From TrEMBL:
<keyword id="KW-0052">Apoplast</keyword>
<dbReference type="InterPro" id="IPR001117">
    <property type="entry name" value="Cu-oxidase_2nd"/>
</dbReference>
<keyword id="KW-0560">Oxidoreductase</keyword>
<protein>
    <recommendedName>
        <fullName>Laccase</fullName>
        <ecNumber>1.10.3.2</ecNumber>
    </recommendedName>
</protein>
<feature type="domain" description="Plastocyanin-like">
    <location>
        <begin position="37"/>
        <end position="147"/>
    </location>
</feature>
<keyword id="KW-0325">Glycoprotein</keyword>
<dbReference type="InterPro" id="IPR011707">
    <property type="entry name" value="Cu-oxidase-like_N"/>
</dbReference>
<dbReference type="InterPro" id="IPR033138">
    <property type="entry name" value="Cu_oxidase_CS"/>
</dbReference>
<comment type="similarity">
    <text>Belongs to the multicopper oxidase family.</text>
</comment>
<dbReference type="Pfam" id="PF00394">
    <property type="entry name" value="Cu-oxidase"/>
</dbReference>
<dbReference type="InterPro" id="IPR045087">
    <property type="entry name" value="Cu-oxidase_fam"/>
</dbReference>
<keyword id="KW-0964">Secreted</keyword>
<dbReference type="GO" id="GO:0005507">
    <property type="term" value="F:copper ion binding"/>
</dbReference>
<dbReference type="InterPro" id="IPR034285">
    <property type="entry name" value="CuRO_2_LCC"/>
</dbReference>
<keyword id="KW-0677">Repeat</keyword>
<dbReference type="InterPro" id="IPR017761">
    <property type="entry name" value="Laccase"/>
</dbReference>
<feature type="domain" description="Plastocyanin-like">
    <location>
        <begin position="160"/>
        <end position="309"/>
    </location>
</feature>
């Protein structure tokens, strides 16, 4: 028996020596019970859809290359799915989560196991529901630590804190969006913003306390900041303190200091906070950014940073919040972002392009006989408002089910016009479940062009299944001859969600090395609801590692 133990130990040591990554990688199991929880905020209560009774939901902790297995059990009366926002899902397209794109929803009383590996990823991401507007309260953090023995490419902080920004409605959020769809009008904006689930004091309700970030003098803290809001770009500031940005969307950046973080829905930012001020209480503000003439929640959420040793009821150090239309602040922040582009973490920007795509982003108006004004608001890429299918696109593709989608999404707008000028463009869109086909490992450039149709607006745009490099941006109409000369092809920031500036454009590049069907959509939920979304079909390559795997046995049915 002792001899067997010695042989086993020797074998394990040999495996650890020859395959250290195998030993480092673990399988992490989580259980998500989706349940109603009666919640009181803003001096009113309502049943809230939560994971495990928590808002925000539980944090997933893992390390790079770990496998994560999450059993999601639906105990509420809504269909739902969970999306692991920013997870590449290499080889696991069935686990991506958008309803009717990669899977049918998990129906009430049913469950589904999401199984995916965090291949080559480390940093902060988020998970959230991807059905209707359920992500208002169904969301949480994904914290991916580096492999054991691999340090951060910046000084190791003393502690880490997760900060989740979100929105809160007093009303049932599903009732809000359903009423908007029925009327054809914009939905009611949220009643408050929250910081780690706390709204703080708001007009008409000053009794509820805000979130407190506890720190000790001389220590450093890695803040993992997540914007889980449905519809609002946000500024984040801490009175009297600068922050050093070191990562966005789980990709390391060249460090830079700022006193204001700009963060759009679906984005994450990791920043180092140094507790180097005097003992006391310092206010934290999450305030909205909006530089377009549209309705939004204009309330600022207030939390506090409190040093150890601060006496009871201290006077708070205040912070000035940026103007709500502080476009220069957003530009300064976004222009400061650069990939680390080190030997260990290179920026592998595609230098040659197989597919050069030009997508206009616009809000429109379509006829609607049952709506209040006989019309309804819609949104579209290249004048195509996406129509959700009744079965999942990935299933239809895998099983070769006919009549579910077409592969004719336009690479360019059907009719060119003065996109950001005072144009007389037709405000009506076409409707369709139209996909764009990409060959395996092909390189793609997309110019996302904002328009002034109805109203110009910032559009945070998210691509599932890939990271991309933000090689350029500008105001006005993209010039295909002049603007590419200004592209940064050396160290552009790498992201999964990017804000297209109001009345401007953004150019991104990526390599289509992940077979499956992958969603591109505005991460303002109001625009997604109106149809501002489209899928890419990435074809199989050669061999099993470049081929879409069969679906899991418990994949939900429609």
């Amino acid at each position: 028996m002792e001899s067997c133990r010695l042989h086993l130990r020797a074998l394990l040591l040999l495996v650890a020596f020859l395959y250290p990554a195998f030993v480092q990688s673990l399988i992490r199991h989580y259980k998500f019970s989706v349940v109603f929880k009666n919640t009181t905020k803003l001096c009113s209560s309502k049943p809230t859809i939560t994971v495990n009774g928590k808002f925000p939901g539980p944090t997933l902790y893992a390390r790079e290359d770990d496998t994560v297995i999450v059993r999601v059990i639906n105990h509420v009366n809504h269909n739902l799915t969970i999306h692991w926002h920013g997870v590449r899902q290499l080889g696991t397209a069935w686990a991506d989560g958008p309803a009717y794109i990669t899977q049918c929803p998990i129906q009430p009383g049913q469950n589904f196991i999401y199984n995916f590996t965090l291949t080559g990823q480390r940093g902060t991401l988020l998970w959230h529901a991807h059905t209707s507007w359920l992500r208002a309260t169904l969301h949480g953090a994904i914290v991916i630590l580096p492999k054991r023995g691999t340090p951060y490419p910046f000084p190791t902080p003393d502690e880490e804190k997760t900060v989740i920004l979100a929105e809160w409605w007093k009303s049932d959020v599903e009732a809000v969006v359903n009423q908007s769809i029925k009327s054809g009008l914009p939905p009611n904006v949220s009643d408050a913003h929250t910081i780690n689930g706390h709204a703080g004091s708001v007009p008409g309700c000053s009794s509820q306390g805000g979130y407190t970030l506890h720190v000790e003098s001389g220590k450093t803290y890695l803040l993992r900041i997540i914007n889980a809001a449905l519809n609002d770009d946000l500024f984040f500031k801490i009175a009297g303190h600068n922050l050093t940005v070191v990562e966005v969307d789980a990709s390391y950046t060249k460090p830079f200091q700022t006193n204001t973080i700009f963060i759009s829905p679906g984005q994450t930012t990791n920043a180092i906070l140094t507790a180097n001020r005097g003992i006391g209480k310092y206010l934290i503000a999450a305030s909205p950014f909006m530089d377009a003439p549209v309705g939004f929640d204009n309330l600022t959420s207030i939390a506090s940073l409190r040093y150890k040793g601060t006496p009871a009821n201290p006077k708070a150090f205040l912070t000035s919040i940026p103007p709500q239309n502080a476009t220069p602040v957003t530009n300064t922040f976004m222009d400061s972002l650069r990939s680390l582009n080190s030997k260990q973490y290179p920026a592998n920007v595609p230098l040659t392009i197989d597919h050069s795509l030009f997508f206009t982003i616009a809000v429109g108006v379509n006829p609607c006989a049952t709506c209040v004004n006989g019309s309804k608001l819609v949104a579209a890429f290249n004048n195509v408002s996406f129509v959700m299918p009744t079965i999942a696109l990935l299933q239809a593709y895998y099983y070769n089910t006919k009549g579910v989608f077409t592969l004719d999404f336009p690479a360019n707008p059907p009719i060119p016009f003065n996109y950001t000028g005072n144009s007389t463009a037709n405000m009506q869109t076409t409707n369709g479940t139209r996909l764009y086909r990409l060959g395996y490992n092909s390189t793609v450039q997309i110019v996302l062009q904002g328009t002034a149709v109805i109203a110009p607006e910032s559009h945070p745009t998210h691509l599932h299944g890939f990271n991309f490099f933000v090689v350029g941006k500008g105001i006005g109409n993209f010039d295909p001859k002049k603007d590419p000369k200004t592209f940064n092809l050396v160290d552009p920031v790498e992201r999964n969600t990017i804000s297209v500036p109001t009345g401007g454009w953004t150019a991104i590049r990526f390599r289509a090395d992940n077979p499956g069907i992958w969603f591109l959509h505005c991460h303002l939920e109001v625009h997604t609801t109106w149809g501002l979304k489209m899928p890419f079909l990435v074809e199989n390559g050669k061999g099993p590692n470049e081929t879409l795997r069969p679906p899991p046995a418990d994949l939900p049915t429609c």
